[in-house]
Amino acid sequence: MTVSSFVRMNQLFGFYQSLLTLRQQEMLSLYYEEDYSLAEISEHYQISRQAVHDTIKRSEKALEQYEENLHLLERRLQREQWLDALEEQIDNKASILAIVQQLRDYDE
Asked: For labelling alongside 63, which of 5, 32, 33, 43 has CA 20 to 30 A away?
């Protein structure tokens, strides 16, 4: 898993964790936040490493599906880009007004 996909999964987990089962939440938290290995998680739950792997993969797929349908992460990242652009254009009123208008139009 690349660093960018790891970061993305952490972000998705932050947005959508409450939509997962408690067990999925716990396993993803151990895996992504606590940096447990699959073997450590399997030992903790007294289940097979394969069962942990399957649960994590299903949970990741669910998080991606939630994002595909709700776009919460995508919208947040877009807003952050616009805020960064506003900071860069602090002395240019016309640019700031154009970005503000984009923000207003975004949620319509």
From this structure: 43
